[in-house]
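User: I'm putting together notes for a lab meeting next week and I want to include a structural view of one of the chains we've been expressing. I don't have a solved structure, so I'd like a prediction I can at least talk through. The sequence is below, exactly as it appears in our construct file.
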Amino acid sequence: MQTGSPWRDLPPVFGPWQTVWKRHRRYVADGTWDRMPTALLALADSTGNLDGRFHDRAGASAPCRRPAPGTTNWPSPTAPESFWP
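Assistant: Thanks for the context. Below is the predicted structure for the 85-residue chain, given as structure tokens.
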């Protein structure tokens, strides 16, 4: 996982960044992150919080295209939902 944010910039509520980094590395190595979506879906299903409207968007992405030079033609955040995939 990479977001471009340094570990040192984590809010203090998470504790020392070194501890968070070590925990993240351990979760990657032991497969915790890979098992998490399945476990969360099972929990939601067992507690009746999964109603069939769930759509798996994991790994889905849309390219971010820059507007042509000299323009500010970015999509409006209030654009109709049909605009976004």
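A couple of points you could mention at the meeting. Confidence is low (pLDDT under 50) at residues 81-85. Helices lie at 17-30, 32-46.

User: Perfect, that's what I needed.
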